[in-house]
Every structure is written in structure tokens, then in C-alpha cells.
Amino acid sequence: MSVIERGRRDADDAGRATPTEELLYGVIRRLWPLHRTVVRAVERELAGTGLTAGEHALLDALRTEGPRTVPQLARTMGLDRQPVQRWVNHAAELGLVVTAPNPAHRRSSLIELTTEGAEVIRGIQDFESTELRQRLADLPAADVRTALHVLDRIGEEFHHLASDAPTPATPSGTHNTSDRHDGPVLRKTGDIKDTPDAPSGSDTPTPQHP
Predict the structure, then answer these.
(1) Among 15, 19, 58, 187, which is least packed by CB within 10 angstroms?
(2) Contact (Cβ atoms closer than 8 angstroms) between residue 21 and residue 157
(3) Exposed/middle/buried for residue 130 (C-beta within 10 Å: 0-12, 13-18, 19+)
(4) CB pairs under 8 A, 24+ apart, for 93-98?
(5) Alpha-carbon distance 4 to 110, whole Å?
(6) Against a cut of 0.85, is the pTM above it?
(7) What does the alpha-carbon distance between residue 133 and residue 136 come to, in Å, rounded to a whole number?
(8) pLDDT tens digits for 56-66?
């Protein structure tokens, strides 16, 4: 039973939403515009680096999780393999990631940060941490932990709903702006090819830092 269904079950006889249901709707309504605002802010921060917000998320995942295959990265980021593969290829062109042998699966290489890649994402995140401390210093740690718990629970419920929903077709002529890469190419290498070690999931992002 989903979060919303539980809220409706608890509604009073007049059919009005419960206070919790109204609050949940308020959180859900804010997620999409918040995500887009964060992406725009990150893209502005990355201007001139040659990186996109998606590639920022890729480097962050590698820094946090360590070397991963493209399918593993896609699952971590809640995305289809194809956009993640494009980000990996461009990050390789910039000299920020390389492939490494995968002892568990010879046909699916590990992707890992180069020394330069680790320095780039560390520098970006040091700047971001400073900005967060200055701009959100009024938020108690307990409130942030509660927000994380609520977002995780909503994410779990909607993951179940999304797994049963048909994937909408992408209208012709549209473009995913988060996939573009503008700016200087620092070092050119060949595309990194990867063979998936498991079927890819839906191209539905989960809440995460962009």
C-alpha cells in the first residue's frame, strides 16, 4: 500500500485529506521544481569546467561508492544505463575516469576516478560544503535527518509504483539538456564501452544530489 493510499485510508468520513496526506502532497509537489533548481545551480557552478550536472553526480557516486561498473552506477543513481554511459565516456575524454579490470565480471569493466578526477570532484564539493554551511546554517542536524528519512520513505513507495508503470515515450524533437556537455575538453581518449552485467532498469531518477 502506497503512502498516498494510506493517507486516503485515514481520511475522515467527509473525504477530506488528513493533515499528513496534505503535508506529503506538499513535499511531493516541491520535489520536481527543487530538483530542477538544484540542477540549474550546479550547472552554473560548473560553467567552464566542461562538466554537466549529470557528470557531477557520476563523479560524486564514484567518490562515495568507489569503482563501479556502468550498470552498478546506473542502479546507484536510479537511471538507465545509456545516459550514465554517455557521462562516463565524456568524463573519460576529460581524463577524469578510466576503466579498470573487474575481477567479478571480465566483460564489464570497472569505472574509477583518476587522480585528476578525484581532485576535481573534491574541489567542487569543498566549495559546495562551504556554500551549504553559509546558506543553511539555520537548519538543525535533527531536521535534516528527518528530511532524509521522509525522502527515503517517499522514494521507496514511489519506486514500487514506478516499477509497475509503463515508461512514457519521449516526444520526437526533444532533448535532454542535462546530457549536453559544453566547455573545454581537457584530454581526449576513446569511448569507454561497457557490457551490462544485469538488465538496466527504468530511466527514473531517485532523489539524490545532482
Answers:
(1) 15
(2) no
(3) exposed
(4) 93/185, 93/186, 93/187, 93/188, 93/189, 94/50, 94/51, 94/185, 94/186, 94/187, 95/186, 95/187, 95/189, 96/55, 96/59, 96/120, 96/121, 97/58, 97/59, 97/62, 97/192
(5) 39
(6) no
(7) 6
(8) 999 999 999 99
